[in-house]
Amino acid sequence: MKPGRTTSIALCIALASGPATAAETGDYKFFGDARIAFAASERETRESETLSREEDLRLRLRLGAETRLSEEWKARARLAGRYSTDQDRTRFWLKAWAPTRTGLEFGDATIDELYLDYAPVDGNWSLRAGRFQGKFALKGVASKSLDRYNSPNTDINWTDGLHLTYGTRAAWRSHLVLQSNASSGSGQVARAPLTFDDDSSHIIMFAALEAAEPLGPLTQRLFAVTWMPATLATDGLDAPARDDYFAFTAKLFAELPVGPMRGGVGAESGYAPETPAAALYNPADTGDADGLAWQFSVNLWDFAPGHDIAFVHGKAYAGWLLSPDFRNNDRLMEVRYEWRISSKWTMTARLRQRQEIKVPADTPQLRVDDDFYLRFTVRF
Q1: How far is residue 331's CA from residue 320's CA, in Å, rounded to a whole number?
Q2: What are the tens digits of pLDDT across the range 220-236?
Q3: Where are the domains of the chain?
Q4: What is the dihedral of CA 339, 345, 351, 354, to 10 degrees?
Q5: Based on the number of CB atoms within 10 Å of its own CB, is 144 exposed (0-12), middle (13-18) or buried (19 or more)?
Q6: Could you give the dihedral angle defined by the CA atoms of residues 23, 24, 28 and 34, in that order, rounded to the nearest 10 degrees?
Q7: Are 350 and 333 in contact (CB under 8 A)?
Q8: Residue 363 has what DSSP assignment?
């Protein structure tokens, strides 16, 4: 480890190890969380050679405060930073877009929440405005999403805009998110060749219908659509054509007792009808890239008290461009173990393999990425 980077990690760990309970001063509540992880990865390239083996120590630290302005209004703000022993520099990033397509780089810090919430006392709806986090993930020990999920693992990204929720006291809830983007990019995950250089692409929409009550063993039913006007560079980022990008998803999760334990099976499917040209990924292909994506998980909670485990398998074909958890043109297999040490501390271990789905015909083999992490999360 490099001395300067190790010192910054140690300082953040010391801050994260402070008071373990949320403090309240008058109408203000202070809160935070820290994730400390050892990560290792290895890549086998298309030419059958090992390109790189990497190991680093990572930290994500988030510190925030919220206050209730009245019975109907709430305000919240949070600082977030992610750090690594392999980072090149440290900076504070405060722009409307993230510096990469998946969020902040290591060494970056930002304001990842700054919003107002309004919920009428006798109403059946709520409205959030500003910068906030959104999570519409498939339930499970290894919770993942094909579309909208801000800041999984040690990542940091965000949504700028409005989030209207209707049916807060009903059996079904509906969500409408209007997200603002800049010409330079978005705070949300948007994989190439999605781009925001057209003026029409600066507002995108996400709508979802979510069951608020279980139906027999089904504890999650969620259906969503994403509409991103003039964001799809169908023939590549250097070509002038821009089309609308649509994505449809459905999530189902069922839970059943398994003796003294609790088991769960979940599935999510996604479809994008308009996709980039297949030739962007394989010059020999014609037509459009496949716009399908899916994931399937098997979960077991409390196989020993406080210990959970899950297996996830999924694919996102080349035309699926929204997921923070699944790269397009990749298949994924993952085993996740979690130990809930206490109400504030959790240990998580992950073993994952990602493999390309399609490559040019003259390529010797598919690219394969194997990675592992051991992570501790503390909330305070």
Answers
A1: 12
A2: 999 999 999 999 999 99
A3: 62-365
A4: 130
A5: buried
A6: 20
A7: no
A8: -
Its CATH architecture, for the domain 62-365, is Beta Barrel (2.40)
Q: List Cβ neighbours of 321 (8 Å cut-off, separation of 6 or more).
A: 190, 191, 192, 193, 194, 245, 247, 272, 276, 328
Which of 156, 280, 295, 138 shows the shortest CA–CA distance to 218?
138
Token pair belonging to 75: 């305000």
Query: Residue ranges of the chain with pLDDT lower than 50?
Result: 1-26
Q: N- to C-terminal Cα distance for the chain?
A: 28
Q: What share of the chain is helix, strand, coil (3-state, %, to 5)?
A: 5, 55, 40
Interacting residues of 61 by C-beta distance below 8 A, sequence separation 6+: 12, 15, 16, 32, 33, 34, 80, 81, 83
For residue 100, give Cα distances in angstroms to 93, 106, 231: 12, 11, 16
As given in the structure block, the two tokens for residue 296 are: 């399937």
